[in-house]
Amino acid sequence: MYGLIAIFDERTEELIKNIWKELKEKSISTYAYEVEDRKPHITLASYNSLNKKEFIEQMDITYKNQTVIDIKFNIIGSFLNSGALFFSPTVTKDLIEIHSNHHKDFERFNDNPNSLYLPDNWIPHCTIANRLSEDKLNEVFNYCSTRYSTILGKIVNVALIDVSEKHKAPIIHSIELKHDATLLS
């Protein structure tokens, strides 16, 4: 299994990692520590299997001129009957475009017609906690909704990860997105 993820700027990543750390210290959730080197992210796509060489070549072409995307998390949500809590970003034109362009350019790799990350199924989110009991879900919700306000950040990188091993999700290939000024030079 593989995922294509959008990775945040250092400040946003550290803020979310601090939330994960606080939830662990309060014995509410260990979600962030269940996978080695987990990074805060938004998943853009998932695949059961891949020709990694072809996929990486397509990544290099598709994301060569992709610019950094501003992101604003101002919603706390949960998928029904999931025990998951997430921060959901404001859905902007840029966020929709990176997602829809990815699926258009990588259509030949789609091997799961029921993927939750396909257009018309996708709910962009950054998971804060997962597999929680009803009590713990309420505890995380109350904690996050009173402790934090809007998080402003940026998507600065896209990365292909391998999620086939249970407690690992190594980055196979990543591409740093361009700042607008770098396109001018």
Overview of the structural elements:
Strands 1, 2, 3, 4, 5, 6 and 7 form a 7-stranded antiparallel β-sheet that branches. The chain contains 5 helices and 7 strands, in the order βαβαββαβαββα. With 185 residues, the protein is α+β, with helices and mostly antiparallel strands. The chain has a single domain, classed as Alpha-Beta Complex (Cyclic Phosphodiesterase, Chain: A), CATH 3.90.1140.10.
Record keyword descriptors for this entry.
185 residues, alpha+beta, Cyclic Phosphodiesterase, Chain: A, seven-stranded antiparallel sheet, 5 helices
- Tell me the fraction of residues in β-strands, as a range: 25-35%
Q: What name goes with the CATH superfamily?
A: Cyclic phosphodiesterase
Q: What does the radius of gyration come to?
A: 16 Å
Per CATH, the architecture is Alpha-Beta Complex
Query: What is the CATH top level name?
Result: Alpha Beta
Total DSSP helices: 5
The CATH topology annotation reads as Cyclic Phosphodiesterase, Chain: A
Short précis:
The protein has 185 residues and is of the alpha+beta class. Helix content is 32%, strand content 27%.
Task: Produce the secondary structure layout.
Blueprint: E1 2-8, H1 10-25, E2 41-47, H2 52-62, E3 69-77, E4 85-89, H3 93-105, E5 126-129, H4 134-147, E6 151-162, E7 171-176, H5 180-184
Antiparallel strand pairs: 1-2, 1-6, 3-4, 3-6, 4-5, 6-7
